[in-house]
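Example record

One chain of 140 residues, shown exactly as stored in the release files.
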Amino acid sequence: MKLARRLGLCATAVAALGLSAAGVAAAAPVTVPFQINPAPYGNPNGSFDAPATQCAAVVGDRPGVVVITGGKPGGWGCPLSSQVQWLNLSTGATGTTQLSDGLNGIPAQASVNTGIGQVAVVVNPVAGIITPGLATFYVP
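Predicted structure tokens for this chain:
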């Protein structure tokens, strides 16, 4: 009887470990696109010579971390050296960082440790009269 009970406990433990390992499988990173609209000469409607820039937030690559980068192929498209302000709506944590300068063929990006939760991000270009870009998303 003791042997049967021990075998049953071992089988249950092995099954539980197998189920928990399956639940831990990493999800593929998700890209959340957003744009920043220019307002040349104070015109909030923009113009043909100042198109909107494409940024993206990449979540799910690492827990509690979001990467702000360009939304075009190769990670380009987000204004260089822009200020990034973030607020984790779930925890109340806040912070500010800056996108990289895009030198040496490396696109502008910033890795932001927001923690897990619903996050709001504002990307504010430092040059020109440009409307900041806003995105909200869940960071796993």
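Notes: The longest helix spans residues 2-23.
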